[in-house]
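Researcher: Please translate sequence to structure tokens.
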Amino acid sequence: MRARERQIRRLREEAGHGLNAFARSVGVAPSHLSRIERQLAHPSPEVLKRIADGLGVAIKRIASHDEEE
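Model: Translation complete:
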């Protein structure tokens, strides 16, 4: 799994968001968010922005391939 996908999942879980509710809150199907988190799909820039906004982080924090740990 690439850093971006690990970062999205980690931030979502740390924020206490369940996959289904969070996906719907950012306007994507839960199955699509799951595929993004498992690196089976790549988010469009628009979806990536909505995910970042939903997580309350700058898009560059999840758009980067470098994971901050």
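Researcher: Any highlights?
Model: The CA atoms of residues 1 and 25 lie 24 Å apart.
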